[in-house]
Amino acid sequence: METPIQKVRFGTRGSLLARTQTQWVAHRFQRLYPQIEVELVVIETTGDKQRDRPFTAVGTKGMFVKEIEEALLQGTIDVGVHSAKDLPSELPNGLSIICIPPREVPYDVLIAREARSLEQLPAQAVIGTSSLRRRAQIASVRPDLRFVELRGNLDTRLRKLKEGQCDALVLAYAGLHRLGAEWEGRITQILPKEVCLPAPGQGALAIEAREDREDLRALFSALHCTDSACTLEAERSFQAALGGGCTVPIGALASLEGPSAVVLEAVVVSPDGRQRLFDTYTGLRSRAREVGATLARRMLERGAKVLIEAHR
Ligand SMILES: NCc1[nH]cc(CCC(=O)O)c1CC(=O)O
């Protein structure tokens, strides 16, 4: 018989949010398996090192996960805990997602200095965000608003808002919620999905490990949420089917309907927000992957392909 696992090393990025999320997972794991030792290993990623440069200059693909994946392959950590939306559609050979814990509320939120909602922001107000997806969708409903690139950790962003460098921020609800009541309390408005459709995977965590670690997969199955895994699969297969060359902003959100259906909603938007394609497709939960791929194919045929090529 194989020797039972005595210790699990959890790889995490160093940001406050990443560490909080990883601790959340490690804590639940520890409660399930008190006899197994748990260790957090902080790994600096390209995305963290390049924090002050705009996303567009660093290239976003996998910038928050690469170093964690290298550590998994080298065996210096056992599992990596990621925000699912930071994971590129294709994983490196030899690695797989072994667990999707229950997902948090996936929506984006507005944190405004004075206004009480997006509609109430004065004309020409300045939104601080580094996300092209948020910028394009918000510009589509409020073409008068202005945008500034705002990076750095949440502390820094909230300070810049307070100092008046912008009038409002747009962030993921999930991150603020996980950081606790003090952060969540800053939220002004949860943005409806009709205004700002979240990024594929937003609000979900993904636990990655080496494919051959069946022992870990078995242990983590107790933390796995099949509902969350299903919606994530639909969103990620949509993203993958739109293609790696897709540089225009997209949003995708799946939800479960009744006992056996999954509904996927998606948008493809031009960077200036003037063109916005929305479509939705419902299929079987057991076919979540096809739901994503089918909707992507249909949207490409109905104008997304032209839109993507125009902005390459
Ligand atoms: N881009 C960084 C990032 N990756 C995941 C989250 C939020 C948490 C989540 O989506 O689970 C954030 C911050 C944000 O977008 O506000």
UniProtKB/TrEMBL annotation:
Pfam family for this entry, one: Porphobil_deam
Cofactor: dipyrromethane
Domain (Porphobilinogen deaminase C-terminal): residue spans on this chain: 231-300
Biological process terms in GO annotation: protoporphyrinogen IX biosynthetic process
Sites bearing S-(dipyrrolylmethanemethyl)cysteine, chain numbering: 246
Comment on bound cofactor: Binds 1 dipyrromethane group covalently.
Record's GO cellular component terms: cytoplasm
Enzyme Commission (EC) number: 2.5.1.61
UniProt catalytic activity: 4 porphobilinogen + H2O = hydroxymethylbilane + 4 NH4(+)
Any one GO MF annotation of this record: hydroxymethylbilane synthase activity
InterPro entries noted in UniProt: HemC, Porphobilin_deaminase_cofac_BS, Porphobilin_deaminase_N, Porphobilinogen_deaminase_C, Porphobilinogen_deaminase_C_sf
Note from the entry: The porphobilinogen subunits are added to the dipyrromethane group.
Similarity section: Belongs to the HMBS family.
Subunit structure: Monomer.
Function statement: Tetrapolymerization of the monopyrrole PBG into the hydroxymethylbilane pre-uroporphyrinogen in several discrete steps.
Protein's recorded name: Porphobilinogen deaminase
Organism (species): Chthonomonas calidirosea (strain DSM 23976 / ICMP 18418 / T49)
